[in-house]
Design brief:
With about 200 residues, this protein is α/β, with parallel strands linked by helices. The chain is about 25% helix and about 15% strand.
Length: about 200
């Protein structure tokens, strides 16, 4: 049987970043305070999903989101270069961190010390050639993982390419993978903290 068949895949878009609130092409932007609240609002719910592994785009906004959203979880977390956002020629989507830079960021984040793959996933790779190569590689990695439940903390274009779903910041898309590594969408959920719903006193 295919290792992909029946696998549960959770796709989480990063929280609101500095790049989401400006038209400027900021280099590898971090989360805004709102984005941090969105990501952190998942921390109680995420352990209930029973994720076996969390794959994380090496861009700073996704690293922050993963550590905050999975702060109460025990699943291993690993960087995954091909979960990066498409449009590699923009500063916003360029992986600019050195291993030392990223370890510095992780040192201030919940469970930052458990993040794996720092050296390997910050190196240039064949999947950097195009958006299509990157998404094909990501699909293959998810399909080949031995775990039965895989979370990927990633980006708008990545989730759109894999599922056709247009996500808001910090949305969670729950899917089932078939033997051909295609994803069937089961649900889409907004972050528990959603600023558009919090005009009257959310803290």
């Amino acid at each position: 049987a295919s290792p992909a068949a029946g696998k549960k895949v959770l796709l989480m878009r990063h929280g609101t970043s500095e790049g989401n609130v400006t038209s400027a092409d900021l280099p590898d932007p971090v989360l805004t305070l709102t984005g941090e609240k969105e990501a952190k609002s998942w921390e109680v719910a995420m352990p209930k999903y029973g994720v076996d592994i969390v794959l994380v785009s090496p861009l700073r906004r996704t690293v922050q989101t993963a550590c905050l959203a999975f702060a109460f979880d025990r699943a291993p977390m690993r960087l995954c270069r091909c979960a990066r956002e498409h449009g590699f020629d923009s500063q916003e989507n360029s992986i600019l961190s050195t291993p030392e830079d990223l370890r510095g960021l992780l040192a201030g984040l919940p469970r930052g010390s458990v993040m794996e793959g720092i050296e390997e996933e910050l190196r240039e790779a064949d999947s950097d050639r195009s958006d299509e190569d990157s998404i094909a590689r990501l699909r293959a990695i998810i399909a080949a993982r031995p775990e039965r439940s895989v979370a990927v903390v990633c980006h708008w274009h990545v989730i759109l390419a894999l599922t056709g779903v247009d996500t808001d910041n910090a949305d969670l898309v729950e899917c089932r993978m078939d033997a051909g590594a295609n994803l069937e969408v089961l649900s889409r959920r907004a972050a528990p903290f959603n600023e558009s719903k919090c005009e009257y006193g959310c803290m």
